[in-house]
């Protein structure tokens, strides 16, 4: 039996209690300062108020001030914060994880740097480690929504990190008849692919709203969604190349894009925008919902624009990303640049 | 004004009358022996009984015995037969197309050869040309359902062929504000990508049926669909490599896979199989429906198995294709080989 301490009691981390408990391990679920109510209710009834599922009986719950106790004797730490908690995690949790305890994060995203390069969260956290501290920081990517994982539907994901042996050890704790885990030491490739899909899921969802605007709510037109899907795969492949990730990770990107398009929050904002709502109005309609897609799209576009200024890429190769950025950050109306997607290869 | 003669009055060819007529060209739509009723009704009312749309007024209609008249003065010939009409087209139409008239086909598919290699329809037709005859044979690939094209939704496709100038000339006749055309001289890559998606759309659709079996008709589970989508992209990329097509064509494959999963016939058979119906019963339920996915999956699996016998590929790299083939051709029950999808990359 191993002890796994989860920091962040969001939906994905909480859904990941099922396979690990089933494998006979101890799980300690620690709330962030934002998770206080979640932990309170879990302690009362084992019911997760956001995931809307009852967690396994034996999960142990902790509020954030009890985190040091929760880390005692831990074999693995799982980081379950959202993109918005990345710095909080760096400042408050990274320094107190023992050097010999590997960590794995469900947080998906990338951070753009001054020179236009982007780094993954594992790399960012490594750069934020206190001087002299060493930590094995791993990540989880791939198409997996928390609800369906909690319901034990089949899900396939990738664990990535620098050391394959560490990944194998962590996988043994998480794998389940319904949770299928591939391993990769290409951290940049996996993390970049699954981060980018957020931005592009918004792009594809625009077509959902455009069709609804023209023909009525609920009408689905798949040719235009598929065209944007193909364009997304193309731009994501180019971005993978740019950041030095293996192109084969498009597998995770495409799968993750697929599930995100059907998944909820990102589809909602894309659909509202496609219907013709302004970005500000759409954000107001979705008030209180965390939208990582907005953060990722903005960051990626910013990075690509800076690379273009330095002559390293051609903005014309990223027409969909640029349009999504124009909508989000420059008040542009939705007007898909279809003709810019056309190419000639000979 | 140019004259375009379409041979085959199926849904896709008929939908392609709209942009070409709008561009001011003459379209002559010739039915195959199977299209007699379609042409009869079109002559009466311009209404296409399968596409369920009224075609543009000025389209001219021909029964198959009038094909030579329809070809007189044609600038381009469009082949609109299905996979099942490929040999009929080779025997009856190819010989009577003048050498200087380029042809473009909407037929998607590939043919497996004795040695396990597969060839595209354009290549197959080239091999079937009468001795000494030369013909420019081009193809159309990409995610585009006929209904949505007829309704002038935005669709993005690829025209492929040996000569970029010919492709540009044909594109000029077809392009429209809602019909976006990329060009590629990588015929194998484009044709292979869009043919394969038929087989894999069936594979992804299995997850639709499995979820319905467990939870009731209409329930959608996207994690498992996305996992199969990712696995499909992976196997399709490998197959593209095998046939010598550029991997970047996965853009068309992924987009086309996306639209096919939502598109109708292939999804139906996959869903029925996923629910637990035997292949024979499912085919009976869908009696009369042409299922190119079955043909493509069977041919591709056969080719891959033969390549494996010759030591050229490892069957373990194609677990989803093999499972689909086992279901279709060996009476196997649906039992997704999830663990075979797991990989290690380091």
From TrEMBL, chains A, B:
<feature type="binding site">
    <location>
        <position position="265"/>
    </location>
    <ligand>
        <name>NAD(+)</name>
    </ligand>
</feature>
<dbReference type="GO" id="GO:0008654">
    <property type="term" value="P:phospholipid biosynthetic process"/>
</dbReference>
<feature type="active site" description="Proton acceptor">
    <location>
        <position position="197"/>
    </location>
</feature>
<dbReference type="Pfam" id="PF07479">
    <property type="entry name" value="NAD_Gly3P_dh_C"/>
</dbReference>
<keyword id="KW-0560">Oxidoreductase</keyword>
<dbReference type="GO" id="GO:0005975">
    <property type="term" value="P:carbohydrate metabolic process"/>
</dbReference>
<feature type="domain" description="Glycerol-3-phosphate dehydrogenase NAD-dependent N-terminal">
    <location>
        <begin position="5"/>
        <end position="158"/>
    </location>
</feature>
<dbReference type="InterPro" id="IPR011128">
    <property type="entry name" value="G3P_DH_NAD-dep_N"/>
</dbReference>
<dbReference type="InterPro" id="IPR036291">
    <property type="entry name" value="NAD(P)-bd_dom_sf"/>
</dbReference>
<dbReference type="InterPro" id="IPR008927">
    <property type="entry name" value="6-PGluconate_DH-like_C_sf"/>
</dbReference>
<comment type="similarity">
    <text>Belongs to the NAD-dependent glycerol-3-phosphate dehydrogenase family.</text>
</comment>
<keyword id="KW-1208">Phospholipid metabolism</keyword>
<dbReference type="InterPro" id="IPR013328">
    <property type="entry name" value="6PGD_dom2"/>
</dbReference>
<keyword id="KW-0520">NAD</keyword>
<protein>
    <recommendedName>
        <fullName>Glycerol-3-phosphate dehydrogenase</fullName>
        <ecNumber>1.1.1.94</ecNumber>
    </recommendedName>
</protein>
<keyword id="KW-0594">Phospholipid biosynthesis</keyword>
<dbReference type="GO" id="GO:0046168">
    <property type="term" value="P:glycerol-3-phosphate catabolic process"/>
</dbReference>
<feature type="domain" description="Glycerol-3-phosphate dehydrogenase NAD-dependent C-terminal">
    <location>
        <begin position="186"/>
        <end position="335"/>
    </location>
</feature>
<dbReference type="GO" id="GO:0051287">
    <property type="term" value="F:NAD binding"/>
</dbReference>
<dbReference type="Pfam" id="PF01210">
    <property type="entry name" value="NAD_Gly3P_dh_N"/>
</dbReference>
<dbReference type="GO" id="GO:0047952">
    <property type="term" value="F:glycerol-3-phosphate dehydrogenase [NAD(P)+] activity"/>
</dbReference>
<keyword id="KW-0521">NADP</keyword>
<dbReference type="GO" id="GO:0005829">
    <property type="term" value="C:cytosol"/>
</dbReference>
<keyword id="KW-0444">Lipid biosynthesis</keyword>
<dbReference type="InterPro" id="IPR006109">
    <property type="entry name" value="G3P_DH_NAD-dep_C"/>
</dbReference>
<keyword id="KW-0443">Lipid metabolism</keyword>
<dbReference type="InterPro" id="IPR006168">
    <property type="entry name" value="G3P_DH_NAD-dep"/>
</dbReference>
């Amino acid at each position: 039996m191993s002890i796994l301490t989860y920091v962040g009691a969001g939906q994905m981390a909480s859904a990941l209690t099922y396979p690990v408990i089933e494998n006979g391990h101890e799980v300690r679920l620690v709330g962030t300062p934002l998770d206080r109510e979640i932990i309170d209710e879990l302690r009362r009834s084992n019911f997760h108020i956001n995931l809307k599922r009852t967690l396994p009986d034996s999960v142990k719950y902790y509020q954030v001030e009890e985190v040091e106790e929760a880390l005692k004797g831990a074999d693995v730490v799982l980081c379950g914060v959202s993109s918005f908690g990345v710095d909080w995690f760096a400042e408050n949790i990274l320094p107190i994880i023992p050097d010999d305890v590997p960590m794995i994060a469900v947080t998906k995203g990338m951070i753009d740097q001054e020179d236009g390069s982007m780094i993954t969260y594992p790399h960012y956290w490594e750069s934020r480690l206190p001087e002299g501290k060493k930590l094995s920081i791993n990540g989880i990517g791939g198409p997996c929504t928390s609800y369906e994982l909690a319901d034990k539907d089949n899900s396939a994901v990738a664990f990535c990190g620098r050391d394959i042996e560490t990944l194998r050890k962590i996988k043994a704790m998480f794998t389940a008849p319904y949770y299928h885990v591939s391993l990769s030491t290409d951290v940049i490739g996996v993390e970049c692919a699954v981060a980018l899909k957020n931005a592009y899921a918004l792009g594809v969802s625009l077509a959902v709203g455009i069709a609804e605007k023209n023909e009525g709510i609920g009408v689905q037109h798949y040719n235009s969604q598929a065209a944007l899907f193909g364009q997304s795969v193309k731009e994501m492949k180019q971005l993978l190349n740019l950041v030095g990730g293996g192109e084969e990770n498009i597998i995770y990107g495409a799968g993750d894009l697929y599930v995100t398009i059907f998944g909820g929050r990102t589809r909602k904002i894309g659909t509202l925008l496609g219907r013709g709502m302004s970005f500000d109005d759409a954000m107001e309609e979705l008030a209180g919902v965390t939208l990582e897609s907005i953060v990722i799209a903005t960051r990626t576009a910013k990075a690509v624009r800076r690379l273009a200024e330095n002559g390293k890429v051609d903005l014309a190769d990223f027409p969909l990303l640029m349009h999504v950025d124009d909508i989000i950050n420059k008040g542009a109306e939705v007007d898909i640049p279809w003709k810019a997607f056309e190419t000639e290869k000979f």
